[in-house]
Amino acid sequence: MSKRTIIASTVIGAFALTASAAVSANSLDAIQNEEAKIHAAAAKSQEKINTYFEQSQELLIEYRTTVDQTENLKVYNDYIASLVEDQQRSIDSLQRQIDSIEDTKQGIVPLMFRMIESLEKFINLDVPIHLDERKERIERLRDLMANSNVTISEQFRQVIEAYLVEVEYGTKIDSYQGTIENNGTQITVDFFNLGRTALLALSLDQNHAFVWNNEKRAWEELGDEYLSSVVDAVKMANGVVPADLIKLPIQAAE
Signal peptide: which range, if any (predicted)? Predict the structure, then answer.
């Protein structure tokens, strides 16, 4: 071949290689660009995946919380339901009691009248300790029973209270002033009672002493051998002297 031909071939080959290299470089750039796009898309996808994962975790936590709250509410609702049932039973019981109030009133009112009557009879037969006070209490009870402004429960309370006061008379030592009749004459005296065991009276000048005879329903004058003991008994009851052994006229039990 001629030199010109070789040179031309060489030039053509060089151009071909250059063109091929240019094409290869362009292809590589395109591939790199695509890879970059793919990586960018993958990164965005991963971000979305991470976001969705976080949201799913939050939803899972919320779901579990909701389930726990639902269980707690169920337990609480069951508890409230049991309370409502118990309250309903109480309401039903109260309603039955309310329905029976009239029957109760019809039974308790006659009972209170019988109690007052029995208490009055007892006072008239008993040792006359604080007799005027006890009779006045009976009259107040009768007035109370006739007062429409006083509830039945309050009436019953005061009747029971009167019985309790009567019990106290038999359990304490007491001294107070009053009057007795002796041979048709009213005498002011200091009373002394040892429960219901003995009821004595001492004249204010301390020269006469008396004892109540419940069988005869009368006062009897005591001899001088009891006078100093009765004086001491009144002083003890009033707290003037300390308690001590004394000689008192006490009727023996039969």
Answer: 1-21
Q: Which residues contact 213 (CB under 8 A, 6 or more apart)?
A: 219, 220, 251
194 in the same domain as 160 = no
Nearest to 115 by CA among 85, 142, 96: 142
CA–CA distance, 170 with 176 (Å, rounded to integer): 15
* 131 lies in some domain: yes
Which residue in 198, 181, 200, 201 sits closest to 189, CA to CA?
201
What's the number of domains the chain is made of? 2
Domain extent for 210: 173-237
Is the per-residue pLDDT at 243 higher than 80? Answer: yes
In which residue are the tokens 């004086």 written?
A: 231
Mean pLDDT of 76-82: 88
Helix (H, G, I), strand (E, B) or coil at 65: helix
pTM of the model: 0.58
